[in-house]
Amino acid sequence: MIRVSEEQYPTIKQMILRAPTFVYSILDQIIEGTVYADTTAFQTLLFHTKSGIYYIYGDINKTAVDQQLSYCFLESIKQKKRFTLFSSTAQWDTKIEQLFDGLIRKLERYTFSFDEDMYNQREKSEGHDYEVQPITEHLIKNSLEFGHAYYDEYWDSPANFLEKGFGFCLVHHHQIISEAVAIFKSNDYAEIDIMTDPNFRGQGLASMIAETFIDRCLAHAIKPCWDCDISNTASIYLGTKLGFTKPQKYSIFTKKEPTLSSKTS
């Protein structure tokens, strides 16, 4: 496959249908990444973040992508790095499973559509005395879940997130008790990631901080995005309350962990 130049990113962005938010983050050059194509006609595309997250899109019959995916997979093993592959269709699911026979595991997730009218008509979360603060370097250092390693993985660095991303937290006696941050963001989309301290759950804090995040999106003409594992009933319930509807199932594939026998052989 050929590596697509950044000058071609706007063309590709117009060609593809709805894709994971990280794909648009790459195309808008908000995070580092690489785009591969079978030919200059861009019939098949492979998107690759620096952290090892991939998305495959287009014609499944192009053999060049088989070789590129195999190379990326072997490199991830050699370098002991992450390999997470997002599939765009059921046809790609089948091809990926055939290509990596026995070497990967399949996980199913939902992506939701955001209904702004439903969101605006819902009953807002009750107020709390907790202070809402935008994410800063100081708060990143004190986060329970979204520390420096998180922003290194998904945003290339905390500095890049602070410059190009956004997020909010609830603070109680100088302690972060709930956060909502953009795990990925583009010029048009922002995918939400939420954490609440287990000691403060059951108070509606996740709804409250999510509303702050969503309101910020709407104020800047950005569409909020909500994805989760199909088994995450709590996330599905919360997302539905916030106006995320019409769940659509998709698949991701990750490397299988080596068995004990393979580690010791």
* Proper CATH architecture of the largest domain: 3-Layer(aba) Sandwich
Order of strands in the sheet with most strands: 1-2-3-4-5-13-6-12
Class of the largest domain in CATH?
A: Alpha Beta
SS strand fraction: 25-35%
Largest sheet at a glance? 8 strands, mixed
Mean pLDDT: 93
Subunit organisation of the chains? single chain
Poorly predicted sequence stretches spanning 5 or more consecutive residues: 260-265
CATH homology superfamily of the largest domain: Gcn5-related N-acetyltransferase (GNAT)
CA-atom Rg in angstroms? 19 Å
Measure the end-to-end span.
35 Å
**Global shape:** globular
Number of separate strands? 13
Q: What do we call the CATH topology of the largest domain?
A: Aminopeptidase
Please indicate the count of domains.
Answer: 2
Q: How do the helices and strands line up, and which of them pair or pack?
A:
Layout: E1 2-3, H1 9-15, H2 21-27, E2 33-37, E3 44-49, E4 53-58, H3 63-78, E5 84-86, H4 90-99, E6 104-114, H5 116-121, E7 131-134, H6 137-141, H7 148-155, H8 158-164, E8 167-172, E9 175-185, E10 189-196, H9 205-219, E11 223-225, E12 227-229, H10 233-241, E13 244-255, H11 260-264
Parallel strand pairs: 4-5, 10-11
Antiparallel strand pairs: 1-2, 2-3, 3-4, 5-13, 6-12, 6-13, 7-8, 8-9, 9-10
